[in-house]
Design a protein that fits this description.
There is one protein chain. The chain has about 400 residues and is an alpha/beta fold. The chain is built from twelve helices and 15 strands. A hairpin with a 4-residue loop joins strand 14 (about 340-350) and strand 15. The protein starts with a helix and ends with a helix. Strands 1-5-2-6-7 form a five-stranded mixed beta sheet, with helices on one face. It has a four-stranded mixed beta sheet with strand order 8-15-14-13. Strands 9-10-11-12 form a four-stranded mixed beta sheet.
Length: about 400
């Protein structure tokens, strides 16, 4: 197989979680949970850019192929493996920080290389693995790596140096710096034979550029923000979303769905997406009033002028529905800051990244998603649309 290392590595670039230094260096550093202290403040899991500001001069950029962060088992470990498989120059991997108690990605990577997976592609937890990690591995099967990929990964020469423990970047970087010279070795003749056994290009998802799209406006609902609440008003019914800002829209809209205020007639998915986006934007405009005004979207509040509307005295407090996951797949929403675009990564139910939708506006993405058959036809379909509307709305504002 022809693989153009100079042009194609890292196979999965990620500006926010992976920084490339000297791709042909034999050492890479992987960071789990970390905490960055600034004066009296402590930032948990700070951005990679902030972590790298503490990188000591004793770790020369020419001595490290890449430094990255990892937070999840599925997707996170898979991307690390895929990038390692496609760079045979890397023969040493330092793992730093602590493991997330939710996903145990560092432990997962170590166990994957040492012990492999079972028939269902669950990481085998070797001796000494925390009991919680064993349960996580049994629950979260790897999706995008085949048994052949995993066998190829375990076959390649890789020494994992376990530096877990300290969570402060200056501390674990100092540990790496003290050991680094013992592990630096130029790799003059890297072996590419492992890439002849697998097809790395099947990992790469399609990227679709979404044209402008429109959502149907539901004029039957009035939406406005009032202080720390959002009101979804349909004539005689007013539902009030309260509580934490990232859940207000969902609480109000879930109650509207429970009470059948959204008619399930032709085009209802588009109208529900529009209503969700409008509701979440009202929440955002009240939460970040100055920013909304600065970018010219004060109207997202749902009212103009200085007289803020009052919450109806008879308004019903919204309550969330119980979680009903889509059995067909899910999206991961992110912002492409450099391109000034939004991205929605669609994953099949098994976690495989199928394709990425890219668009300029929240309306474009939502219109494409509700019209494209991405949301399963199941009882919680309306819930999924609401969730997507909220998350895409927040990403769009960001």
């Amino acid at each position: 197989m022809t693989f153009d290392f100079t042009r194609e590595w890292p196979f999965f670039p990620d500006d926010e979680k992976l920084r490339i230094f000297e791709p042909r260096a034999n050492v890479a550093i992987l960071i789990g949970h970390s905490e960055l202290r600034t004066g009296a403040d402590v930032k948990a899991d700070p951005p990679l850019a902030s972590i790298l500001q503490t990188l000591p001069s004793s770790i020369a950029s020419s001595s490290v192929a890449a430094i990255g962060t990892i937070t999840t088992l599925r997707d996170g470990v898979e991307r690390v493996v895929q990038n390692l498989l496609t760079n045979p120059y890397i023969t040493v991997l330092f793992v730093c920080g602590e493991d997330s108690p939710v996903f145990y990605p560092l432990e997962g990577l170590i166990c994957l290389y040492r012990d492999g997976v079972d028939e269902g592609r669950h990481v085998v937890a070797g001796n000494g693995a925390p009991e919680r990690a064993i349960k996580v591995f049994a629950r979260d099967a790897l999706a995008t790596l085949s048994h052949e990929d995993i066998a190829a990964f375990r076959k390649r020469a890789l020494e994992i140096v376990d530096c877990r423990g300290a969570v402060e970047p200056p501390v674990f970087f100092a540990d790496v710096a003290a050991r680094l010279s013992s592990y630096q070795r130029p790799v003059d003749s890297p072996s590419w034979s492992v890439l002849d056994e697998i097809d790395v290009y099947r990992w790469r998802p399609r990227t679709l550029q979404i044209p402008e799209g429109e959502l149907e406006h539901d004029a039957g609902f009035r939406v406005f923000a009032s202080g720390a609440t959002v009101v979804v008003d349909r004539g005689a019914r007013a539902i009030v979303g309260t509580g934490k800002s990232d859940g207000r829209a969902q609480r109000a809209l879930h109650t509207a769905l429970r009470d059948d205020l959204v008619a399930r007639v032709a085009g209802w998915e588009s109208r529900l997406a529009e209503l969700t986006l409008r509701t979440e934007r009202a929440v955002l405009a009240s939460e970040f009033r100055v920013d909304a005004e600065r970018i010219g979207h004060a109207e997202w509040l749902g009212w103009a002028g200085t007289d803020e509307p009052k919450v109806p005295a008879a308004g019903e407090t919204g309550r969330p529905l119980s979680l009903d996951l889509d059995p067909t797949g899910f999206f991961k929403i992110r912002v492409l800051y450099e391109q000034a675009m939004l991205a929605a990564d669609y994953h099949a139910a098994d976690g495989r990244h199928v394709e990425t939708l890219q668009a300029k506006r929240a309306e474009d993405l939502l219109a494409a998603i509700v019209a494209g058959g991405y949301v399963g036809d199941y009882p919680g379909r309306d819930q999924h649309i609401v969730y997507l509307g909220v998350q895409i709305g927040r990403a769009d504002f960001a």
